[in-house]
Amino acid sequence: METQTKNFRKRGAILECIRCTKTHPSADMVYAMLQKDHPDISLATVYRNLALFRKQGLIQCVATVNGTERFDANTAPHVHFICTGCDAVLDLPELQVPQSLCGEAAAGVGGQVSACQLSFTGLCGECSKN
Amino acid sequence: METQTKNFRKRGAILECIRCTKTHPSADMVYAMLQKDHPDISLATVYRNLALFRKQGLIQCVATVNGTERFDANTAPHVHFICTGCDAVLDLPELQVPQSLCGEAAAGVGGQVSACQLSFTGLCGECSKN
DNA sequence: TTGTAAATAATAATTGTTCTCAAATAGGAG
DNA sequence: CTCCTATTTGAGAACAATTATTATTTACAA
Fold first, then answer.
1. Chain B residues 78-117 with CB within 8 Å of chain A
2. Which chain B residues have a beta carbon less than 8 Å from that of A124?
3. Are A109 and B90 in contact (CB under 8 A)?
4. What is the mean pLDDT of each run of 10 residues along chain B (130 residues)?
5. Fold category of B1-73 in CATH
6. In CATH, what is the architecture of A76-130?
7. Hey, which residues does A120 pair with through a beta bridge?
8. A102, A112, A121: residue with CB nearest B114
9. What is the mean pLDDT of the segment spanning A99-128?
10. What pLDDT is attached to residue B45?
11. Taking CA atoms, what residue in B is nearest to A96?
12. Do A76-130 and A1-73 have the same topology in CATH?
């Protein structure tokens, strides 16, 4: 029973992990965070399940920072800030992409728009003091 | 003299190449396009110079599609459309990010905003007919 | 020509990600 | 409970994009 619950679906643990953090982690960060409760987890399992969650629409990739993808369990479209100093990805919940732009975009290409993404780049509060 | 002019600074050719195309090419695409006039160019040279141009502000990375970076010599902030069908990156010159948002973003993080990027994802006209 | 610093080609190394495959496991049928 | 089958997983190989290294070539000035 002990080992059973421990090994019972690491998939759930991965989803839980990404839902409980605000840092928009990469696959590697999720892997590191899970080490404590699941020391025998494989990095491949993390990648595999992140890809699955994305396909299922449970999470989304919100940015690619220095070549590594960053994920978010908040699938509602929202604005991000990417710090070039510390590679942090922050939410800007108070900002919103004007709805009208989506329609204009669809019209502009004569196709279908399924998502939009707005992100700002710069130095966060911490890093701008460096 | 012949060989001299031919070998004279491939850097210029790389910049020229990216300035003369509207497809927002990747490093690999630039490399392929240069093969004709510079069959002996190295892919590493393309990467190196693209990185340099970016640092100099001559070009910018406008998107990461399927893990590969796409560049643009138009460094003015403008909106893009990324087709998930054919991986094309298109301009949407008629759209603009409201200037007010940038200020709000800077205020939101208490830091400095150096760039912003808005992109829509979906199917382009061609692909939506598939 | 000769010295020096920058640019390059070739290739090795690194890094993020995906694939392969055999072993472990869950959940159902008997 | 026991067997069966499909799912999930770990380990590491494979892969592709990118970066670093190194020896060679080039531009240019003295």
1. 79, 81, 83-84, 90, 92, 94-95, 97-98, 101-102, 104-106, 108-117
2. 109-111
3. yes
4. 48 94 96 92 95 94 94 93 96 92 95 94 92
5. Arc Repressor Mutant, subunit A (1.10.10)
6. 2-Layer Sandwich (3.30)
7. A81, B116
8. A121
9. 94
10. 94
11. B101
12. no
